[in-house]
């Protein structure tokens, strides 16, 4: 049996026989959810998942997809969820393949959640996600909206954290995105220049990176932000598109980004959205970025980041994997019991493990940031 599946089997057995308490919290073993058998075209939402405006205690944050899934109850409406709940919700509502959503959910738990109790917030700090046992990563679990490890600069609809609100949708930023749509968009059922395409996403990313490099003294565009932001731009084209037409139109994108609700008469993708589907669009967007991975120095001059050590310098993706480990607290290596099992499981989910990136990293980042 492959080591990975042996690990999963061991975790399931362990869950049955043990209840483990650390620092007053009860550990919950993380597992891979069963994979869906129904992965075709389907109208979303169904009758069981109406839009309900979030209440004051419900967490929402920088990810339009997770916010939309929560507003419709495909993931818990309070915005606090487990690894499995995030994956199952994104699979059902958006036909996201586990190969994409698995590593995203693993990042959320390892960087900004509580992997011992298997919970993270898609917004800010929540009383439902206590700090790690022993507060080894500081006094609170931030939630994915916390700037730095996961949430970063040059987003399409959220401000850079140094400039303003990095969590909520910003009309002014979206209006600027729509100027690019007006210039580069394809013609469609809603009029000319109303369908998002690669040229539009390139226009948006070029505009945002140049604008923030010159206005945000702390502008940081690491390898993982390069892959993350161009990946998000590709998501907009491949995941939010109407599955019957493959078009991401002005009303569809407005509904997801501005209103955080599924558009009327929307169909999810006809097949799971995998890395193979997203790759060409993400690569085209990356190739057109004005800057290599880097950041502003104290004088506001953009300086390219040094390459990581071999073999992580072999590709942008492997470099991003290295940056991710550098932004995950090293103290997670020092855990025990279910806590350690879950950390090891999530690290395995993140590991690209392909020939171009075949060396697994343990987290080596600072705690409490
Ligand atoms: C558990 C799964 C997911 C997690 C933890 C997650 C997390 C995040 C985070 C932290 C950001 C902020 C990055 C930044 O701009 O600084 C983000 C942005 C984004 N996410 Fe997600 N995400 C998940 C799944 C998805 C899925 C399935 C989609 C599919 C459409 C998606 C689409 C986007 C888009 C388009 C943005 C960019 C928003 C912008 O630039 O204004 N995400 N996500
Ligand atoms: C839309 O574009 C088509 C093709 O370029 C053109 O023939 C048509 O006049 C345009 N329609 C409008 C309303 O501008
Ligand atoms: C949409 O994309 C899928 C996957 O690439 C393809 O199989 C399908 O034929 C496309 N549909 C249309 C209407 O272009
Ligand atoms: C957003 O919701 C408002 C209020 O329901 C509605 O009037 C508007 O048309 C919606 N916009 C989009 C782009 O879906
Ligand atoms: C998706 O495409 C179908 C078939 O063309 C159409 O009936 C439906 O209105 C479209 N939905 C959206 C949200 O554009
Ligand atoms: C990676 O770094 C090693 C050691 O410095 C170097 O020999 C190699 O050429 C680099 N590879 C790439 C693709 O830059
Ligand atoms: C792990 O714990 C040991 C013993 O307390 C300590 O020496 C070491 O620095 C810790 N390592 C990390 C990465 O926190």
From TrEMBL:
Membrane-spanning ranges: none
Cofactor dependency: heme b
Keyword Heme assigned: yes
Key words, A-Z: Heme, Iron, Metal-binding, Oxidoreductase, Peroxidase, Signal
One Gene Ontology MF term: peroxidase activity
Domain Heme haloperoxidase family profile intervals: 47-280
Signal peptide interval: 1-19
Pfam families: Peroxidase_2
Family per record: Belongs to the chloroperoxidase family.
The name this protein goes by in its record: Chloroperoxidase
Organism: Mycena metata
């Amino acid at each position: 049996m492959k080591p990975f599946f042996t690990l999963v089997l061991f975790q399931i057995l362990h869950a049955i026989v043990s209840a483990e308490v650390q620092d007053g919290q009860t550990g919950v073993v993380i597992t891979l959810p069963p994979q869906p058998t129904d992965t075709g075209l389907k109208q979303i939402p169904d009758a069981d998942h109406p839009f309900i405006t979030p209440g004051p205690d419900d967490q929402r944050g920088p990810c339009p997809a997770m916010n939309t899934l929560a507003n419709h109850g495909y993931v818990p409406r309070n915005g606090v969820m487990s690894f499995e709940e995030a994956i199952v919700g994104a699979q059902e509502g958006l036909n996201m393949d586990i190969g994409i959503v698995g590593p995203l959910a693993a990042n959320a738990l390892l960087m900004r959640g509580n992997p011992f109790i298997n919970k993270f917030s898609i917004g800010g700090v929540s009383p439902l996600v206590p700090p790690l046992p022993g507060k080894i990563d500081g006094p609170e679990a931030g939630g994915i909206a916390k700037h730095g490890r996961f949430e970063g600069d040059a987003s399409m609809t959220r401000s850079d954290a140094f400039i303003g609100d990095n969590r909520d949708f910003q009309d002014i930023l979206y209006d600027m995105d729509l100027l690019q749509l007006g210039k580069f968009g394809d013609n469609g059922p809603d009029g000319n220049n109303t369908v998002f395409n690669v040229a539009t996403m390139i226009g948006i990313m070029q505009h945002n990176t140049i604008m923030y490099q010159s206005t945000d003294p702390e502008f940081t565009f690491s390898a993982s932000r390069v892959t993350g932001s161009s990946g998000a731009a590709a998501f907009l084209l491949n995941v939010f598109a109407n599955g019957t037409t493959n078009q991401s139109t002005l009303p569809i994108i407005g509904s997801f980004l501005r209103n955080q609700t599924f558009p009327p008469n929307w169909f999810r993708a006809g097949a799971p959205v995998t890395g193979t589907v997203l790759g060409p669009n993400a690569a085209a967007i990356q190739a057109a970025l004005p800057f290599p991975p880097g950041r502003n120095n104290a004088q506001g001059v953009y300086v390219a980041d040094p390459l990581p050590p071999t073999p992580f310098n072999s590709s942008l993706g492997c470099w991003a994997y290295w940056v991710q480990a550098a932004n995950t607290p090293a103290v997670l290596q020092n855990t025990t019991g279910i806590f350690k099992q879950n950390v090891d499981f999530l690290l395995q989910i993140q590991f690209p493990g392909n020939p171009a990136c075949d060396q697994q990293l343990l987290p080596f980042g600072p705690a409490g940031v």
